Amino acid sequence: MTSLSPPLQAVVALFRGPLHNVRFADIDSAGLGTLATEVEAAVAEVEAQEAKLVELRQALAQKQEALLGLAQQALAYARIYAEGDDALTAELNDISLPRAAKPRKAPKAAPAGAAADVTSPQAADSAEPKPAEAAGPAEAAPEAEEAEAGESPSKPGRRKVQRRLGRAAAGADTV
Q1: What is the DSSP string of 30-85?
Q2: Residue 174 contacts by C-beta under 8 Å, 6 or more apart in sequence?
Q3: Minimal CB count within 10 Å: which of 8, 35, 38, 99?
Q4: Which of 16-25, 31-40, 93-102, 109-118 has the least mean pLDDT?
Q5: What is the mean pLDDT of residues 28-32?
Q6: Local structure of 68: helix, strand or coil
Q7: Closest C-alpha to 68, from 93, 98, 106
Q8: Is the pLDDT assigned to residue 66 strictly greater than 50?
Q9: pLDDT of residue 68
Q10: Domain segments of the chain: what residues?
């Protein structure tokens, strides 16, 4: 695969083909071919360095996370140590570290033919019940209300339960 643009490829191919023996001042087939090869090598080097840069950035992010976690522990221990020292406690309270990012678990692949796990948010989004699968109009109504309101809750099951409980509580008040 070449990284040269199609017009540049056409010019180089022209000087490799019909204009192979033609020379214009300091322009000839050998010069164009050599420079095209150097460009290809430079592109390959840039891609290799960019891949290395991505790896280095990932390593840096991991080290920063490790430092942050250690600094949070150090600050917690220092706060306990400084309980009797008001000046040190005040100085420690002025430090506010960001929270460490929690590692995300990779979604598990479901075996072929197995039912999707509807407890995970990813599965809940992709496994919406069909009208024939709905248990009844009482359960379909909250979903319809959410769709009409344009809401997309982060935990779909929780919102449904809250709405049902809210309705049950409202119905109990009127009885």
Answers
A1: HHHHHHHHHHHHHHHHHHHHHHHHHHHHHHHHHHHHHHHHHHHHHHHHHHHHTTT-
A2: none
A3: 99
A4: 109-118
A5: 92
A6: helix
A7: 98
A8: yes
A9: 94
A10: 6-93, 121-174
